[in-house]
Specification:
By secondary structure, the protein is α+β, with helices and mostly antiparallel strands. It is built from 25 helices and 18 strands. The strands form three sheets. Strands 1-2-3-7-4-6-5 form a seven-stranded mixed β-sheet, sandwiched between helices. Helix 10 runs antiparallel to helix 11 and helix 18 crosses helix 24. It is elongated and about 110 Å long. The relative contact order is 0.10.
Amino acid sequence: MLKCLRIFALCVFVFAAAQPTRAQPLPAGVTAVNSVEGIDEYRLPNGLQLLLVADDSKPTTTVNLTYRVGSRNESYGETGMAHLLEHMLFKGTPTTKEPKAELAKRGLEYNGSTSLDRTNYFASFAANDANLKWYLDWEADAMTNSFVSRRDLDTEMTVVRNEMESGENSPSRILSQRMMALMFDWHNYGHSTIGARADVENVDIPRLQAFYHLYYQPDNATLIVSGKFEPARVLQWVSESFGKIPKPTRRLPLLYTLDPAQDGERSVTLRRVGGAPLLYVGYHVPAGSAADSAAVELLGLILGDTPSGRLHKKLTVNQLATGTSAGAWTLADPGVFIASAQLAPGQEVDKARTELLATVESLRREPVTADELARARLKWLNDWEQSFTNPEAVGIALSESIALGDWRLFFLTRDRVRAVTLADVQRVAEQYLLPANRTLATYIPTDKPERPPAPQSVDIAQTMKDFKPLAAAAKVEAFDATPANLDARTQTFNVGGVHAALLPKGSRGGAVQAVLTLHFGDEVSLFGQKDVADFTASLLDKGTTTLNREQLQDRLDQLNTELNVSSSPGRVTVTLSSRRGQLPAAIALVSELLRNPALPADALVEYRQGKLTAIEQQRKEPQAVAQNALARLGNSYRRGDVRYARTFDEIIEDVNRVSIENVRAFHQRFYGAAKGEFAAVGDMDAEQVRAALQAGFGSWNAGVPF
């Protein structure tokens, strides 16, 4: 994948000896669309866009064919497809079976490149009508007639793997991939153009062919011819070669995924053998077509230029790094601004990282100066002029503008750079170069990096081949849940002050569900005790006088029982999920934690901290604030009454006031089985359950009356 070229800006250049192509009669169906500063745009009936950049002052001709498809167009399992197609188009068509040999025979310098937003094919050669016509014919043929076969892919896979492994052996490229993956949660910009190895090596040919036929069509392409050529002839040749391709009837998928604004610093560390320490820091910035993109471009020079850039002066000159850079990766959708610092072995990563971040994010405290802006603008415009006056470079630059959405952005961006103000640059720096928008990537060379085992797919058919299931469980009765049957099957009795109801019935796995609720106190005795009661209930499952917290959990696991304690003013509730043989022992354990809880002081501190954290979160949530305000509306009870609706500040004050002594005294005073209910439904021995309840709660009558 080639990085997007930075589009540079400058004064208008007049192409020498260019003929006024608009004066020539156009081939049938070809439409003249735009003419901008010597670049003429035409459109074919099938949707192909053609740009002619005639310049007879150069002895060469350059042809670029840009398809508006890149890795951002790939779906799940398709990563790397756009790049694979770039290779596959050089594998031939029924008409031209060996295009590479034909290209070499004619002395053409050619290549292709794939980026996030586009795929580009280009060739440069000494101006020659025969070669130009042949190349146009071949590109038109390859657009819709390329083989894209399994055999060709297999022969090309070695080249693709070599390219992939070359990237995998480059710390800078892998670090860039890790940073982009961390920056984008949803957008495909987070995926490398080279693709995932598993996707590339297992690519489905029909799926690859479908991708090719979807995007390699004239209405999704722009042909750019620049340098020395006869425009009228090129128009005729393009009409003859590309014009015979039918206009596609399919509709291209609409891409609409955008990531939300980043909401906090992110960082990733890469450790591998070899290389030198490297730092990247990325920030989300507007799309390349956005008005603020010009200011972002200039910020790249203000920070990253050598020797005038701030990063060079702060890091390289002070020997914290051997080199620095900064710049925008302008993309069709919101892109990234990246600053980097390359270190030598032995230079301190922590110091360089601190200075890199401080310099990039210091623009709020140390604003951009007029001199810095003037220097950056001049350099940018000079670079743009060099690009514009070079037939090879202008084709590539126009290709990048096409990827952003419109080739005329090449000129609009120049105009924006000319017009950008100091206030614009400062505003953009303060909006985007801030910690909450930052993703930091660090490469640290390591002699023996630790690695987990490589992920492996599982052959589920092979895995299950020898599986032998256990004998099927006994069939569970079909229970008739009518009111009459419920009444007939339910057993009720009293254990002290606890009214019990049992419904024995068959259940899958012998499961049984039970709930015990104990009541205590009234609005008078509970006055000022709301939080103490809450803390007391929350500490019940933190251990007993004979079992610490870990031992209590171990005992529950041994009994295959899940337990939960909840409370509200004047009551505590314990719910159980157990099995037939374990329910009596589980009831005995519940009796122990209710009657003899440890109520440890450290558990109180832990619970208080969690409760205070939750309150702080609630007071910032609109729904919680609204519910609190509604509860307080018309509430006439005085503070301390369990029915009083408190403000968040009052809750925090009361929670902070609870002590372990308060909790232990509350338990001693209020807890007891003088009033309560117990219910159980499921597979159980009712007599054993009754005996367990009698043993655990029959004589426990302490507690303030309910």
